[in-house]
């Protein structure tokens, strides 16, 4: 299998509407697109849909980590590969 096929996490191929998943994207270092503005925009979108506002540093940090987990493959260093 190639890398694209390995990323395709289709649980029911009958309903699959795509050839492969778009996320998570590879992370090859710092991504300048992943900014405080992105996290604030997602927080505002959640609040506009009736969720409690992200109003403290702990919630903001958790949201940032959740977004990073959704967006990126984990970075594998040479030490972790065996």
Q: How would you characterize this protein structure?
A:
The protein is mainly alpha-helical and 82 residues long. It has helices at 3-7, 36-48, 57-71. It starts with a helix and ends in an 11-residue tail after the last helix. Mean pLDDT is 79; it is low at 1-5.
Topology readout:
Blueprint: H1 3-7, H2 36-48, H3 57-71
**Beta-strand percent range:** under 5%
Report on the biggest sheet. none
Give the SSE string.
Answer: HHH
Q: Please report the number of helical segments.
A: 3
The total of beta strands comes to 0
What's a concise summary of this model?
This protein is mainly α. It has three helices and no strands. Helix 2 packs across helix 3.
Notable characteristics:
single chain; about 80 residues; mainly alpha; 3 helices; about 40% helix; disordered N terminus
